[in-house]
Write a structure and sequence with these properties.
3-stranded antiparallel β-sheet
Length: about 50
């Protein structure tokens, strides 16, 4: 059985503004940002 990796690396960066997810392989890189708030409504709860 041959497996082809979809992503060879995933990077997660969390800040007070939100979370950035970056995935990449040898050909392409994708990035997505999830804000902590949208329209003044919390979407992510920050734990200290």
């Amino acid at each position: 059985m041959n497996f082809i990796p979809i992503l060879t690396g995933i990077k997660i960066v969390a800040t007070k503004e939100g979370v950035t997810l970056t995935g990449s392989d040898s050909d392409i890189s994708i990035e997505s940002f999830i804000p902590t708030e949208e329209n003044d409504n919390p979407r992510i709860e920050c734990m200290s």
